[in-house]
Amino acid sequence: MIRDSKNWADEVAKRHIKRKVLEFRLKIDHNEFLNGNFSQRANLFLDALQRSIDKMENLGISLEDRNKLYGILASVKSEL
Predict the structure, then answer these.
(1) What's the predicted TM-score (pTM) here?
(2) What is the pLDDT of residue 10?
(3) Measured between alpha carbons, how far is residue 12 from residues 52, 55, 61 in Å?
(4) Are 79 and 72 spatial neighbours (Cβ–Cβ below 8 Å)?
(5) Residue 24: strand, helix, or coil
(6) What are 29-50's pLDDT values in tens digits?
(7) Apex CA 34: angle with CA 27 and CA 6, to 5°?
(8) CB under 8 Å to 30, separation ≥6 — which residues?
(9) Residues paired with residue 12 on neighbouring β-strands, in sequence order
C-alpha cells in the first residue's frame, strides 16, 4: 500500500545486540523513484545507504568502521 502522506512513518534505526544486527528502515520518495531514470533511482538508494551510515554513530559504530563504509559508498557512486 502506498500512502499519500510523506510522514506516515518515521525512519527506523535500531541495534540488536544479541543478534549482532543493525536494522534500518529508511524512506525513499516513491514519486521520485517512479519517475526517475536508472541513475536517479540508484542515487535514491545510495542516499538512503548514506543516511544509514550517518545514523550508525548513534548506534555505537566506530568512526573507523563508518569511514570504511563511506569509502565503499563513494567508490560505488563514482562508478555511476
Answers:
(1) 0.80
(2) 83
(3) 9, 10, 16
(4) no
(5) strand
(6) 999 999 999 999 999 999 999 9
(7) 35
(8) 2
(9) 25
